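User: Hi! Is it possible to get a structure for several chains at once, not just one? Here's what I have:
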Amino acid sequence: MSIRVGVIGKSGKISKEVKKKAYQVGKEIALKKGILLSGGRDGVMEAVSKGAKEHGGFTVGIMPGLTQEDANDYLDLALTTGLGFDIRSNVLIRSSDVVIMINGGNGTFNEVSSAYLLSKPVIVFEGTGGWADKIKDITQEGKYLDKRKNIELKYEDSAIEVVNLAFKCAPKKSNKFDQGKVI
Amino acid sequence: MSIRVGVIGKSGKISKEVKKKAYQVGKEIALKKGILLSGGRDGVMEAVSKGAKEHGGFTVGIMPGLTQEDANDYLDLALTTGLGFDIRSNVLIRSSDVVIMINGGNGTFNEVSSAYLLSKPVIVFEGTGGWADKIKDITQEGKYLDKRKNIELKYEDSAIEVVNLAFKCAPKKSNKFDQGKVI
Amino acid sequence: MSIRVGVIGKSGKISKEVKKKAYQVGKEIALKKGILLSGGRDGVMEAVSKGAKEHGGFTVGIMPGLTQEDANDYLDLALTTGLGFDIRSNVLIRSSDVVIMINGGNGTFNEVSSAYLLSKPVIVFEGTGGWADKIKDITQEGKYLDKRKNIELKYEDSAIEVVNLAFKCAPKKSNKFDQGKVI
Amino acid sequence: MSIRVGVIGKSGKISKEVKKKAYQVGKEIALKKGILLSGGRDGVMEAVSKGAKEHGGFTVGIMPGLTQEDANDYLDLALTTGLGFDIRSNVLIRSSDVVIMINGGNGTFNEVSSAYLLSKPVIVFEGTGGWADKIKDITQEGKYLDKRKNIELKYEDSAIEVVNLAFKCAPKKSNKFDQGKVI
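Assistant: Yes, the chains can be modeled jointly so their relative placement is included. Here is the combined structure:
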């Protein structure tokens, strides 16, 4: 099975530069034969899906609602969970082998924090603004979200390096490995 | 976006004949460019995924646990929801445009019943045993699960006809349509 | 901790007789110091909550939406899960030590089927119509929903006997017992 | 219906001082006839439940697992959601009229962030350590978690004032009001 890469980031309006960087992340994921998971909506989610889709990747959106009305145009599959914004984000994180953070407001920060709880590797795309550029300041030793040191946050500042590192950090045995226990 | 076909049916040991029928359903879904959604485990789920996968289809498993340890070998993507058997089934139904029932015990019956609650079209593959061959007896007028008449259950007895009918019943505007309100 | 009794049954309009029987079930649960869990809406859910509330019981509704707008007037606590009708029902069943079925359409049948999957004891209040009076016909040996024989459905035809049996069937060590594994 | 007060804070070992403060918060909630919702486990959750329970309050735990094995001894009702730590926290927040934060690591921060997403009022108990004492530093204007300014975080440094403010901030029409839309 392919590596499942969850990409999280700001919805709504984003700058041209962030859009371009997100697009490149999608492209690199596709070129490496990863499957892209995102929240399936606009902003970073749309740009990254477009980049993946236009380079032969498979793109999945984990939607908050029961309908596809807020799905962007670059999804191969929209899972219409009906679980709401917050809980669908948890399903997205749970289903990812590795998580990439691009820009982001409080919703994105929430997702990083959930990834940390589940000990999922997180790569922060530095230089994309929002929480992606502030999160290091609130960590312990530049990388831990609390004393438990579940995982180290990692940082890169180009799309290629972000995606390379993501694939390196994803658990090797993508198929049948144990990701630890939540419940 | 492709039609999302949810296939539900018995886990665990199934007869050669049921396995073959499930395999053919998977094959037909793939040939029609549908995306196959299932519970991702063994039994009917494995056979249908194998049939789709070996004919170029894309196969998704909505898993009960947080790991892929019970995923069958024919999935392109396993969503490790960690929601448990019962709730992951609801996410599967919510994310399907149309549902196909093959054989099945109480768990499968539960999924049909959930599909009915959400007004999702259901095609029953007759002649596959289990609840697929008993469900008509408990319906009203051979097709409704209660007085509300949310949807008509439909029945076919060959893989090709089951899948043809499924694609005919799936809502036309697969992308942005409204599937009604659950919440 | 008190015994947690989940009561499931038809929403919407119900007959005077069913209303009275549901009310009596609520009353008996309260007199026995059980906590009443229900879907928190109208119909059977309202009648049973009223019976419990007017006899000093504590009544909880596991609501489908994020608001309390469809909560009946006899709840001490409405949990506004926002998970939708189908998934909130699973949370209700998961949180109950024992389940009582009164009347019911497809939604209620779905809940019994979920209870069976989780091996929760179910008491059917016979003579209340709907699925409560039809379910025996579709069981194996009058009590099992499929071959796995997870639990036996039990039947009584008066409110007192239904609730007595429910308390007898609830796992003894209500606090720290293991209810088996779903995930 | 009573005001539903969600209290969030560190699990596991906590200092005597934090334990005392959490206990007092529980006591004040009980004296004001609020219903206490928490994650139902040890640490802050246990101390606050003990305080409420010993002063006549009703205490509810929204548990991560399907069993009550990790429930503390001061719960009137444990809802065994089986949804896992992260998603059960969302159900807790969704079901609260107002949220009180005491101490806390990354899990608690995650819950505050979820509360903010849902526009639930949050009162931070200052002087209890952990994220409760650091969160102000990362807000905008001392109170917003991002530009959307969904809600203002509020701060108090004694149990009585924290609870008084919580009751003041809880939406007036606790029963049938609209808490906005998540899905």
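The radius of gyration of chain B is 15 Å. Chain B touches chain C at residues 64-66, 82-87, 90, 93-94, 105-107, 109-110, 113-114, 116-118, 134, 137-138, 145-148, 150, 182-183 (CB under 8 Å).

User: Great, thank you!
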